Amino acid sequence: MSKSITNPKPDFDDIYMELAKNLAKRSHCIKAQVGAVLTKDTRIISIGYNGPPSGTHNCDEEFSETGCPRDSKGSCSLALHAEQNAILYAVKNGSNIEGSTLYVTLAPCIACARIIFTMKISKVLYLDSYAAYKGIGVEEGVEFLKKFGVEVSQYGTSTHGLVL
């Protein structure tokens, strides 16, 4: 049986970023919804989205008007980031994530970048700019990762990703 030219198979980058976008919809945060997918050798290791630790509360229910309390930098004081949730779940379950690829809907912040580097994740594809979201001048997390040898690219800016 020959391959159909009219129905090409989707690229894994497209599949995983689409999954990350759908996972973001699971977030209970009223200010930002972020999803992440951690993969290795074309297999999903773990998934995550931003929100408070499991079993604590849901921000959109407990703080439906204003969102949860903010820390001194204006970030949520109660939530884990999507990357953190995906990494923590993988490690909790004994997965070897060294050399893995992380797909995330928002570029990593500097704190997440340090975790990504420490856990030896080798590649990060992100959809949207964290700097633009926060109104800052530079992608601190992306620059940190690139400086220390992690391959980082914005999804949709190369030939492999769909511009969304």
From TrEMBL:
GO function terms (MF aspect): dCMP deaminase activity; zinc ion binding
InterPro entries in the cross-refs: APOBEC/CMP_deaminase_Zn-bd (IPR016192), CMP_dCMP_dom (IPR002125), Cytidine_deaminase-like (IPR016193), dCMP_deaminase-rel (IPR015517), Deoxycytidylate_deaminase_dom (IPR035105)
GO CC terms, sorted: cytoplasm
Pfam families from the UniProt entry: dCMP_cyt_deam_1
Protein name: dCMP deaminase family protein
Domain of life (superkingdom): Bacteria
Domain CMP/dCMP-type deaminase: 11-139
Cofactor(s) required for function per UniProt: Zn(2+)
Recorded family membership: Belongs to the cytidine and deoxycytidylate deaminase family.
Lineage: Bacteria, Pseudomonadati, Bacteroidota, Cytophagia, Cytophagales
Keywords: Hydrolase, Metal-binding, Zinc
